Amino acid sequence: MLIYQVLPRLWGNGHFSALDEASLKYLRSLGVTHVWFTGIPRHATDKPYVKGNPGSPYAIEDYHDVNLYLADDPGKRMEEFEALVARTRRAGMEVITDLVPNHVAPECRDFVTHPYYDYDWSDTLKIDWSVPSNREALLEIVLFWASKGVRGLRCDMVELVPAEVMQDLIADVKSVHPDFIFIAEIYGRDNYRRYIDEVGFDLLYDKSGLYDALCNICMHGGSVRAITRNWQGLGDMQPRMLNFLENHDERRMASAQMLGSPERAYAALGLAALFNSAPFMLYAGQELGENAADGSDGRTSIFNFAEVPALRHLDTKLHTGKGLSREETSVLAKYRQTLKLSQSPEFLGSANYDLQYCNEASSWFDPDRHFAFLRYRPGKAWLVVCNFSDSPASPSVYIPEGLLPGGESMTLNVPVQPWDFTVIKIG
């Protein structure tokens, strides 16, 4: 599974129609299987308390409506959304939207709320889950969006909601739509097992695991040994993680506040997209090296009609044949190559093997800066070596017997550039 997150208000002219056949064909060409359209349910705007213009997609005012500003004809906005869903599915992808079960905008009449809010979310009020009618309303809302062709929900801040609320919701929805996907935004690693086994989520953000480990490695010189520890700690939960390098909450990898260039994120890309069978998520513009330079904190704003140069250039390219810079074209080629491998039928069906433990003493191999792993299946294998350092490397990588075609062990010298990765196909 490959998820592409995009705020429609930041694509093209900001309307549903801008995500046209050419746009969706482009997403499918990346290997995308699911598009997460962020900011669809109608949220608060033009109110004194609203953050930015048009405001936060997570301060929902009406769960049975879509935002007027997303439509060419506001009076036909729901029909235009339904047409977008139909276009997306014709292009070979399914649609994911947002569910925000912890809070709503003060004007929202879908739920009974408390007279207070969490954190600094002053544009919201917290839903009162002691009120039975709220559970009924939540189920009805999810079934409403399912009736529009939506086939998955990214569920916001679920750890702030009583677990039994989400558990009952997921069970009830899957009794009607067994293939409906629930993705949890979750931060406490101690909660992973519960939210998979008990609550029933299909996927969890691995924010506090792989994402944080990669950020520490790339920004602060942390050891790649943390990757092995995270993988071992997840065990059989690994396929239920959602790996990512960017989303709307996080800073852009290429931003000055993070790595400073898209090329310095290539080693992290190779690790996050190829190391295991967990789904991977892209944030719109990431595959072009968007750096959010128009913002102040390295993030693409979810509160304003932000300028996203990479997406503007892409829209021009898709509709005129020109528009991408040389660097954007180069970054896109790297992503295409990586995603094509990650989503290939042979690779998807392969097992992974962490080679770190058997290369501690290998020549020119730095177990704190180099990470080697194998993806393998009968008759074929792929060796991947990531270099999380400023220097080019050519480590000797030992592969134990029993993993490669033929069963023999092997040692390979693998050249890899700084902050990059190398893939070698064997067999």
Description:
It is a single chain. By secondary structure, the protein is an alpha/beta fold. It has two domains: 2-348, Glycosidases (TIM Barrel), CATH 3.20.20.80; 351-426, Immunoglobulin-like (Sandwich), CATH 2.60.40.1180. Helix content is 29%, strand content 19%. The chain has eleven helices and 18 strands. It has helices at 21-29, 77-90, 132-147, 163-176, 192-197, 207-220, 225-234, 266-274, 309-320, 326-342, 345-348, and strands at residues 2-6, 34-37, 41-43, 60-66, 94-99, 103-104, 125-126, 152-155, 181-184, 203-205, 241-244, 280-283, 351-354, 370-377, 380-387, 396-399, 410-413, 420-426. An eight-stranded parallel β-barrel has the order 1-2-5-8-9-10-11-12. It has a four-stranded antiparallel β-sheet with strand order 13-14-15-18. It has a two-stranded antiparallel ribbon with strand order 3-4. β9 (181-184), α5 (192-197) and β10 form a beta-alpha-beta unit. It starts with a strand and ends with a strand.
